[in-house]
Amino acid sequence: LKSGHLAGAALDVTEPEPLPTGHPLWEMENVIITPHVASRAELTGERRWEIVKENMRRFAAGESLVNVVDKKIGY
Question: Are the beta carbons of 17 and 42 closer than 8 angstroms?
């Protein structure tokens, strides 16, 4: 973010959390920080159920699932 390699970031979760006063991220113009509430955005619930239904269909068909977390990588 500092180098400009990334144009910007929107962060809902930080390490540490809460982000302490004076942390450099608070001062960066290319960073948006939300108070860990992004999951409550408009249409989130609808989108979540669409993914659940799609994964149920895929599981029944023996297909790979979408949005699977790689526990080794952490996302």
Answer: no
Q: Give the per-residue pLDDT at 35.
A: 82
For the question of residue 5 being annotated catalytic, the response is no
Q: Which of 1, 28, 31, 36 is catalytic?
A: 36
> DSSP states of 24-58 as a string?
HHHH-TTEEE--S-GGGSTTHHHHHHHHHHHHHHH
Token code pair at residue 15: 């390490």
Q: Give the C-alpha separation, 26 to 15, whole Å.
A: 13
Q: Do 8 and 28 contact (CB within 8 A), yes or no?
A: no
Side chain identity, residue 7: A
Q: What predicted TM-score, i.e. pTM, was given to this entire model?
A: 0.51
Query: What is the token pair recorded at 68?
Result: 């699977």
